[in-house]
Amino acid sequence: MTKLDFDKGSGLIPAIIQDEDSNEVLMLGFMNKEAWDKTQTEGKVWFYSRSKKRLWMKGETTGNTLSMRKIAVDCDQDALLIQVKPNGPVCHNGTKSCFGEEVL
Question: Which is the CATH superfamily of the domain at 13-86?
Fold first, then answer.
């Protein structure tokens, strides 16, 4: 079992969320140890909200949950790439991805 390094990010690690079929990056969230454990045991992706200071499951109010398919850990054990099957739009704006606006 992989030991994640939550200490580097003051208890949080970034989690990149990627569509399992298209490989499109859908969003970036942060996980604490509790969100990491719940994601593994429940199969739905959980995060820690830095603004609300609480645990939350993506889609808890809309039903647009993220079904976890695969998880990869980076070489420093301080970031995650989670492949998911999205159950509806991922962005709170109603779009498939939170990344849509091109800057360059």
Answer: Phosphoribosyl-AMP cyclohydrolase (3.10.20.810)
